[in-house]
Amino acid sequence: MNLSIHPDADAANAAATECLVAWLMSPGARNVMVAGGNTPIELYRRVAQRRLALSHLKVFALDEYVGVPLDDPRNCANLLRRSVAEAWGVAPGQFFALNSTKDEALAGIQEHERRIGSLGGLDVVVLGLGQNGHLGFNEPGSSEHSIGRVLDLDFISVEANRKWFEGAYAPARGVTAGLKTILAARHVLLLACGTHKATAVKALIEGPRSPRCPASFLQGHPDTRIFVDQMAASGLDRQD
């Protein structure tokens, strides 16, 4: 696990972009999993500005809200379709979203992970970091061996999502790829910025590997690159 600390979010995004571009353009890079949410949007935009030849990629959504209509622009599928699949020039039919329909979400994530396995696994995973240390919707209490599933969201996650849903209703359930799938990827990039992520960053970097902070399981991954700004790193005992 490699940590790099940058003066601000702009610098962290710039460094993360260089890393991600190198991975995407490396020989054999085919299967990419991308997180929804606000954190990686600027990273995706910077990659799109490079106008790279990425039509060969297969892009998989990491997570999705359950119960949000398929045509709602706030669901992860539509966000990732716009900011990644279309913006990066991924070939039609090569973007695989997760089904947000309550009755079909579980079957959808099971098929999602079967497809990833049949393709030989993931080459690159792009992650944000929840304030509670979650990855995707693998909330505190998740095993490092967890597989894709539908689950209730932690209170902290629900509250954090209210800004996307106008402060009233926020989804209470989600569907996510499991930590087992994430940790099997060749390369993992995690981006975290802001003081509200400082506690989670400290648990990720300095805490024990524990289900209490699902992100801490990245400590055992052979090639995880973590990009944070100074505010997100402010809780670390050591910043060298």
Give your account of this protein's structure:
The protein contains 7 helices and 10 strands. By secondary structure, it is α/β, with parallel strands linked by helices. It has one domain: Rossmann fold (3-Layer(aba) Sandwich).
Quickly describe the structure.
The chain has one domain: 3-Layer(aba) Sandwich (Rossmann fold), CATH 3.40.50. It is 30% helix and 18% strand. The chain has helices spanning 9-24, 41-49, 76-86, 105-118, 155-161, 179-183, 198-206, and strands spanning 2-6, 31-34, 58-61, 63-65, 95-96, 124-127, 149-152, 173-176, 187-192, 224-229.
Which key features would you list for this structure?
alpha/beta, seven-stranded parallel beta sheet, 7 helices, 240 residues, Rossmann fold, single chain, 10 strands, three-stranded antiparallel beta sheet, globular
Quick one: biggest sheet? 7 strands, parallel
Strand order of the largest sheet: 1-10-9-6-2-3-5
Average pLDDT works out at: 94
Described by the principal axes of the CA atoms, the overall outline is globular
Helical coverage, percent range: 25-40%
CATH topology: Rossmann fold
Structural class: alpha/beta
Count of folded domains? 1
Order of helices and strands: EHEHEEHEHEEHEHEHE
- In whole angstroms, the N-to-C terminal distance is 14 Å
Architecture per CATH nomenclature, i.e. the level-2 architecture? 3-Layer(aba) Sandwich
- What is the C-level CATH assignment? Alpha Beta
What oligomeric assembly is this protein in? single chain
Strand percentage, roughly? 15-25%
Number of helices: 7
Counting DSSP E segments of at least 2 residues, the number of strands comes to 10
